[in-house]
Amino acid sequence: MNKSILIIDDQENQAKELTCALQAALGDCNIYHTSEEKDIMTKVITRYYSVAIVDLRMEGYAIDGFDVMDQIMIANPYAKIIIVSAYMSDYMTRISEYLSRGAILAISEKKALVAWVPELTKIINGYFNKDLNPFAIQILEDLYAKAKNEPNAAKKGRLFEEFVVGLFRQMGFIHIETRVRDSASNEIDLIVRNDLNDAFFSKFGRYLFVECKNRPELGFSKNDFIVFNKKVSSSNGDSNLGVVFTTGHIKRSVYLEALRESEKGIKILYLGSGETMRLIHTPNMLDEFKEIIDQQVA
Question: pLDDT tens-digit profile of 195-214?
């Protein structure tokens, strides 16, 4: 299991102090924090984390901890949440609604660090030490976290491509080429040879063209779609399915443009963070991939 923690608290000093104290207590763990209102949702969406520590009360902000938890469940659906507050009794009715959704790891009342850090350390270590994920899933989860959290832009794209290659190999695809230039000098991130002995994939041509966009803060835009769709359309029938992997969101304009292009027989599949985590954690990745295809292009 990837050991990454995101601390969300409107009090910057408290967030920093808790980050330092937990880092010392947990050791082998990546811990981030965010406090500014404009930065909180950005970090929730763009960072990878396996545990989020969320303060419920955010004085003077347009958002609160419940808004943050809603976004976490969308952007990082396999993350576990530790709810914290100094006013827990004020929120118990609303908290009970979230307990049934399976994302809450624990509820912890804020207190002095000397007592609070050992409590949080026990909760977090208890979760990490369960070793819930098989070895192959751990590797993919670590690759995804490393790629999404990489600050260097040049490395960010390469690491994400390596992660996506790992996904396709786990599904049984063997022959994968990276950074390929076609006859029109278009660069394609990945070309996956569609050589599975599987009737479902036979209708998609000899190859799957894959675009990898590791830009959590920007998302996948209409212009990105137009460029990639042209690459797939120029394959002379070798590929009828393009696959977009993005750590960001798919902009609404993409779907509108895709509708205009739909009669041309080329299908584009979109996998954001939610679909990617579904693939990582499913018992049968190939069947899950087929289900995502059915949901989007059937």
Answer: 888 899 988 989 999 999 99
Give the span between the Cα atoms of 259 and 56, in whole angstroms.
40
> Please, what is the end-to-end C-alpha distance for the chain in angstroms?
34
d(CA 293, CA 87): 45
Query: In sequence order, what are the residues at sequence separation of 6 or more whose Cβ sits closer than 8 angstroms to the Cβ of residue 71?
Result: 41, 44, 45
The chain-wide mean pLDDT, for the chain, equals 88
Task: Determine the distance from the C-alpha atom of residue 278 to the mean position of all C-alpha atoms in its chain, rounded to a whole number.
Answer: 9
Q: What's the CA gap between 223 and 234, in Å, rounded?
A: 17
The residue behind tokens 């004020």 is 90
Residue 76 DSSP code: S
Q: Which residues of 234-249 are buried (b: 16+ CB within 10 A; e: fewer)?
A: ebeeebbbbbbbbbbb
Strands 241-246 and 207-213: parallel
Query: CB pairs under 8 A, 24+ apart, for 227-230?
Result: 228/268, 229/258, 229/261, 229/266, 229/268, 230/186
The closest alpha carbon to 30, from 141, 137, 186, 159, belongs to 141
Q: What percent of the chain stands above pLDDT 90?
A: 55
DSSP state of 220: B
Phi, psi of 246 (to 5 degrees): -140, 140
The 8-class DSSP code of residue 216 comes to T
With tokens 């082998």, the residue in question is 28
Residue carrying structure tokens 């984390």? 49
Residue 253 to residue 210: CA distance in whole angstroms = 20
Q: In which residue are the tokens 């295809």 written? A: 293
- Which spans in 129-236 are helix H? 135-149, 153-171, 199-202, 222-233
129 to each of 126, 135, 165, 283, how far by Cα in Å? Answer: 5, 14, 28, 21
User: Hey, what's the torsion of the CAs at 160, 164, 169, 174, to 10 degrees?
Assistant: -90
